[in-house]
């Protein structure tokens, strides 16, 4: 990450190392369910085997590649930062996203914790604006850090008047 | 802070404002509608001695049952619906089995629209729709009062939009008086008859004709006529031959559809007027239109954030355009296209109206746009090639799987290539962006070239997006998010070296703390293409 593809510096904070495991598990479970369903169909429906076979192979290979590559890649990319004026986060792997939202336009700040995240004491920070498409999601940060940041941001945004549109 | 939703399901506890019913005339309209729905079946049975069997009478009996049930449901709805307007909320209770309570905070109300079907007009009723900029995706819907008296509707509109103090209940007698004359507005556009040509020719013509012909066929069958035999007797179809028969049939159906669309256009847009009218809280953009069903939509100018002009590809040569406003609180996905401020019409009118709506000269949508790098064309051509490859591969795979398929089917996949490449060129040529006079203007689209001008002050966030391929081509997509319209507007595939500069121009100051130092100085200067090329 020596050279930035666009002219923005990286945000300060990396996500937790545990997030690598989280993403790997999520990918494994997702592809596992899909492959399981396909295998079941393969075993039950005789007539469909001729075309389900190749599909199953493609899904299995694709799943393995994604599970191995995606978490490390995401860990290298994902970064976040909260300044006095804005929330700034970089995410993605094949498609990378840089998102900046000014604090004055923030409507709600939430932390979301799925079952896997709870087990790993991780959380996803979700910052929403008045735009239906403008939410900034920062997955894979420590649950306590996320709660603290959410608390701070909520206090700041409550001081901002107007409906932030 | 507005974490609190605009539309809630909890009543306002702090008010003892009495609840009101919908207008009693709704009941009479329902009764009349129910009776009317029985008339066709009655006539068919009484005068034409039609047998009651499902073969011929099926559709008409179905329609009758539908009409009667609808009437009863409407009656129940009237019985169970109450509404009231308190100091802070508009509330409505409804529902027979599932009681629903809906309230909208009055300071969140963004539009109050009235509409009327033909039956409403006859009875002097109006349907009032109170919108609060709800997110349709979140399952929130507007609050609809169906229906109240025309005077009541007008009073509600004044009250909710312009904050006229709520009339006490004793004023109910006065409500029968005609509403005071409305303030005169500045007319921006009126319906021109020639616009019908932009709305007649569409693939929908065939669908419309199919519906019309099917309905007519059944109607005639019910009265004991034989439309199929009549058509068969029109000409000696065997002599004409199958090919010509098909050509004639398609042409005839198309002609019916085209006429149908023309009639539909006029009934929908009859006496269409777009005007800017003064209101208590600034001006509103108002459209009124419709012959049998009149529709009036008011768009608060305080919520106006920009305009959008879309030009469908196949009709760009005659300059066809759809014009809509980008505004907070007007849902793009709602059933009534309230964001659209003009019927489909010529681009010249669209541009003029856009300029007058924005009141900015020169109009942002008329500005010359900066084209995007040629590398963006390579990306689009790459997509065309990839799509062709995948489709061809899938077809080839299918031919090995399915025995009946001829071996050369995969060649059809190759036919996608010229179409895909042509679309790639069209899409590339559409690309453009500009920042001027406080507006961000972006243009893109293959099937519909869409130009959007969005006010910079409406930008609530900036997103850059870059795939691996884009990174190799040194391109990036700049997206601004906003509370208005579609929620986001993108400049696709700008040179990655210019991406931050564009975003900084569109949302000044937002990105300053995050600029890399080398570019923070370079961004201040004019963009240098040589430097952009030199970037790895």
UniProtKB/TrEMBL annotation, chain A:
Keywords: Membrane, Transmembrane, Transmembrane helix. Pfam families: bPH_2 (PF03703). The chain crosses the membrane at residues 20-45, 51-73. InterPro entries: YdbS-like_PH. The keyword Oxidoreductase does not apply. Residues 76-152 form the YdbS-like PH domain. PANTHER family: TRANSMEMBRANE PROTEIN-RELATED, UPF0699 TRANSMEMBRANE PROTEIN YDBS. This is YdbS-like PH domain-containing protein. It comes from Jiangella ureilytica.
UniProtKB/TrEMBL annotation, chain B:
Keywords: Membrane, Transmembrane, Transmembrane helix. The chain crosses the membrane at residues 31-50, 56-76, 196-220, 240-266, 381-402, 408-428. Residues 78-159, 428-501 form the YdbS-like PH domain. Pfam families: bPH_2. InterPro entries: UCP026631 (IPR014529), YdbS-like_PH (IPR005182). PANTHER family: UPF0699 TRANSMEMBRANE PROTEIN YDBS, UPF0699 TRANSMEMBRANE PROTEIN YDBT. This is YdbS-like PH domain-containing protein. It comes from Jiangella ureilytica.
């Amino acid at each position: 990450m020596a050279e930035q593809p666009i002219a923005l510096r990286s945000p300060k904070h990396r996500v937790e190392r545990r997030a690598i495991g989280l993403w790997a598990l999520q990918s494994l479970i997702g592809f596992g369910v899909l492959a399981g369903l396909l295998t079941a169909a393969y075993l039950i429906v005789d007539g469909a085997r001729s075309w389900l076979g190749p599909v199953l192979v493609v899904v299995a290979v694709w799943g393995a590649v994604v599970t191995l590559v995606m978490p490390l890649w995401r860990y290298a990319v994902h970064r976040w930062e909260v300044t006095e004026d804005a929330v700034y986060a970089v995410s993605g792997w094949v498609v990378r996203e840089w998102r900046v939202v000014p604090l004055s336009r923030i409507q709600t700040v939430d932390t979301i914790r799925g079952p896997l995240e709870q087990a790993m004491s991780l959380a996803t920070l979700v910052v929403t604006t008045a735009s239906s498409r403008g939410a900034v999601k920062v997955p894979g940060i420590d649950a306590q850090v996320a709660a603290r940041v959410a608390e701070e941001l909520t206090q700041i945004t409550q001081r901002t008047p107007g409906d932030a549109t | 802070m507005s974490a609190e939703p605009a539309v809630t399901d909890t009543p306002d506890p702090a008010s003892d404002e009495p609840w009101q019913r919908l207008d009693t005339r709704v009941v009479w309209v329902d009764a009349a509608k129910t009776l009317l729905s029985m008339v066709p079946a009655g006539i068919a049975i009484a005068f034409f001695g039609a047998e009651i069997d499902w073969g011929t009478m099926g559709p008409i009996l179905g329609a009758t049952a539908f009409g009667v049930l609808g009437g009863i449901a409407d009656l129940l709805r009237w019985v169970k619906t109450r509404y009231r307007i308190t100091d802070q909320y508009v509330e409505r209770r409804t529902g027979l089995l599932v009681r629903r309570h809906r309230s909208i905070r009055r300071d969140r109300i963004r539009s109050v629209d009235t509409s009327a079907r033909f039956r409403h007009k006859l009875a002097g009723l109006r349907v009032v729709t109170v919108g609060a900029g709800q997110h349709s995706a979140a399952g929130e819907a507007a609050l609809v009062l169906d229906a109240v008296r025309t005077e009541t509707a007008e009073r509600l509109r004044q009250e909710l939009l312009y904050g006229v103090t709520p009339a006490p209940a004793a004023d109910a007698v006065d409500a029968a008086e005609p509403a005071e004359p409305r303030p005169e507005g500045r007319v921006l556009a009126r319906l021109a008859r020639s616009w019908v040509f932009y709305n007649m020719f569409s693939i929908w013509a065939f669908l419309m004709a199919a519906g019309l012909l099917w309905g007519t066929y059944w109607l005639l069958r019910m009265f004991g006529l034989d439309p199929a035999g009549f058509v068969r007797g029109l000409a000696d179809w065997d002599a004409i031959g199958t090919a010509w028969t098909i050509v004639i049939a398609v042409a005839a159906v198309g002609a019916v559809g085209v006429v149908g669309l023309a009639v539909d256009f006029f009934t929908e847009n009859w006496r269409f007027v777009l005007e800017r009218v003064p209101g208590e809280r600034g001006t509103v953009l108002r459209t009124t239109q419709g012959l049998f069903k009149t529709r009036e939509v008011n768009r608060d100018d305080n919520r106006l954030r920009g305009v959008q002009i879309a030009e469908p590809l196949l009709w760009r040569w005659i300059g066809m355009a759809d014009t809509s406003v980008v505004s907070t609180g007007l849902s793009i996905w709602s059933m009534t296209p309230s964001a659209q401020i003009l019927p489909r019409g010529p681009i010249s009118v669209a541009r003029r109206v856009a300029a007058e709506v924005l009141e900015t000269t020169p109009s942002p949508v008329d500005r010359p746009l900066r084209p995007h790098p040629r590398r963006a064309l390579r990306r689009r051509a790459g997509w065309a090639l990839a799509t062709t490859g995948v489709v061809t591969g899938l077809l080839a795979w299918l031919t090995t799987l399915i025995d009946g398929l001829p071996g050369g089917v995969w060649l059809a996949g190759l036919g996608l290539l010229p179409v895909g490449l042509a679309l790639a060129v069209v899409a590339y040529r559409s690309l453009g962006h500009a920042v001027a006079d406080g507006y961000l203007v972006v243009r893109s689209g293959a099937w519909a070239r869409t130009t959007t001008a969005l006010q910079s002050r409406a930008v609530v966030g900036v997103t850059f997006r870059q795939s691996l391929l884009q990174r190799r081509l040194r391109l990036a997509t700049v997206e601004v998010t906003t509370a208005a319209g579609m929620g986001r507007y993108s400049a696709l595939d700008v040179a990655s070296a210019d991406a931050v500069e564009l975003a900084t121009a569109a949302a000044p100051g937002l990105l300053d703390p995050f600029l890399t130092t080398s570019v923070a100085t370079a961004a201040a200067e004019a963009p240098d293409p040589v430097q952009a090329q030199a970037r790895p």
